[in-house]
Amino acid sequence: SQKIEQNSEALNIQEGKTATLTCNYTNYSPAYLQWYRQDPGRGPVFLLLIRENEKEKRKERLKVTFDTTLKQSLFHITASQPADSATYLCALENTGFQKLVFGTGTRLLVSP
Amino acid sequence: DTAVSQTPKYLVTQMGNDKSIKCEQNLGHDTMYWYKQDSKKFLKIMFSYNNKELIINETVPNRFSPKSPDKAHLNLHINSLELGDSAVYFCASSQDHQGAQGYTFGSGTRLTVV
Lengths: 112, 114
What we know:
The complex is a heterodimer of chains A (112) and B (114).
Chain A: E1 3-6, E2 11-14, E3 19-26, E4 30-38, E5 45-51, E6 56-59, E7 62-67, E8 72-77, E9 86-94, E10 100-102, E11 106-111
Parallel strand pairs in A: 2-11
Antiparallel strand pairs in A: 1-3, 3-8, 4-5, 4-9, 6-7, 7-8, 9-10, 9-11
Chain B: E1 4-7, E2 10-13, E3 19-25, E4 31-37, E5 43-50, E6 53-57, E7 64-70, E8 73-78, E9 87-94, E10 104-105, E11 109-113
Parallel strand pairs in B: 2-11
Antiparallel strand pairs in B: 1-3, 3-8, 4-5, 4-9, 5-6, 7-8, 9-10, 9-11
């Protein structure tokens, strides 16, 4: 069956450290993978997209990697801040299916 | 200016009632979506429309009927509401049906069926 798995346990880190979140998928052939941030009571906000032929993408303190052999994406936030505390969702579009499928999200807590 | 706006933000209603949720986007996007987020925070696609044409209809009960009067609007009508319909419903849009520049989500409508 198709699955997109993210660590369901919250990730607790200290301010200034690098947060690394994992997204693993099974039985998908994604054209691209996206990462979103969701705060309580709000809709998801798009952060980054990485295509199947890209290994790494960066945007300010964010970095995403995509390994289609391992079927895994890693999402890094460097120099994390308490304001980075939120739930982070990975999402992918299976090639040709025209719809974004979401993982269950990982809650990140950055403490001062 | 809100990019994707949904109304109402909260909706509490009794079982068996019919209700509608409205969504509008001012981004000029071609494609709009409805997603449902359940109590476990899992976000699942329900429908998508591209230029007013239905392109995705997941296995959603036919009590749910989307309507797109123009490409800037996608409304969701729900008949005979059931307890299990309680969830947060998100409208979203993307530039095209490939969504390769990310989706823009509304702030959600929390539906509670009592």
